[in-house]
Amino acid sequence: MQDILSMQGKVALVTGAGQNVGREIARFMAAHGAEGIVVNDYVLERAQAVADEINAEGGKAIALQADVSSHASVMAMYAKAFAHYGRVDVLVNNAGNAGANPDEAVRKPFYETSPEVWKSWIGVNFDGVMNCTAGALPGMIERKGGKIVTIISDASRFGDAGLEVYAGAKAGAAGFMRSVARGMGRHHINANCVVIAAMGTPMIEERMAADPERAKRILEKYIIRRLGKPSDVAAMVLFLSSGASDYITGQVYPVNGGFTFAL
Ligand SMILES: NC(=O)c1ccc[n+]([C@@H]2O[C@H](COP(=O)([O-])OP(=O)(O)OC[C@H]3O[C@@H](n4cnc5c(N)ncnc54)[C@H](O)[C@@H]3O)[C@@H](O)[C@H]2O)c1
Fold first, then answer.
1. What is the Cα–Cα distance from 222 to 35, expressed in whole angstroms?
2. Can you give the residue range of the structural domain that contains 81?
3. Is ligand 1 within 6 A of the CB of residue 23?
4. Per the domain annotation, does 211 fall within a domain?
5. Residue 100 has pLDDT above 60, yes or no
6. Is residue 217 in some structural domain?
7. Which of 12, 47, 203, 231 is the most exposed, having the fewest neighbouring CB atoms within 10 Å of its CB?
8. CB 97 near ligand 1, within 6 Å
9. Annotated catalytic residue 166
10. Alpha carbon distance, N-terminus to C-terminus of the chain
11. pLDDT in tens, 191-225
């Protein structure tokens, strides 16, 4: 049987793919036969390491440095991507930054941080989505097809004290994607979001292991009693990037271990 999640013949650009969630998304795309992957990160060494890993595993990837919050930087990245692959069929807006200490106890409320700091959070989490989508759409319209997937956070739906600006920027990205979906459907371009809650990054897992009581309190918020793994998210992103999701657009899909119901 044919792979219904096949990425054959598709070129995918994944932003912030130098580690964690983005890295796994890029690896999943490659494993399902993508013709080419653009591994973006603003830290070139990280992106290069992931591209090298994919190429060593038999995939095809290049690393391109760009700061997604800068329109000029993103357009320069697209120019290189187009020069190499000729097109981008799938865009995954993964680059994001909560810009705050993950430890809720020491987070500062937004009004104690400066407008410059707010702008930097909005820059990566909202402007970044606009910049990368703007670079992808003209080619997708010309080729009459494309997929755009944006990673947002449950902070955007339920709020998170100390992450006000991040939550607002992620909610803005969801509204933006929904509107892109409306405008682009007739060009066979799908735009969806994947919303995730806390991921079990090595740092978080380490802290939880050191404080079992706190770990228990955190895990009680998840019906499936564990935090997310990059592969959990990558599987949904792969589905929304493949032909299997051609009839799905303008949606927000939670991959959060049941966090929504446990609240
Ligand atoms: N980790 C979580 O618990 C969590 C929870 C909810 C949502 N998210 C979202 O999921 C996505 C991935 O999260 P993650 O945990 O893998 O993040 P991460 O911080 O581990 O990795 C993000 C990568 O993006 C890169 N990056 C940051 N700013 C960039 C910019 N301006 N331009 C280009 N690259 C940039 C970083 O260098 C890094 O390699 C993000 O959008 C994040 O907001 C994460």
1. 37
2. 11-201+229-257
3. no
4. no
5. no
6. no
7. 203
8. yes
9. yes
10. 41
11. 999 999 999 988 888 989 999 999 999 999 999 99
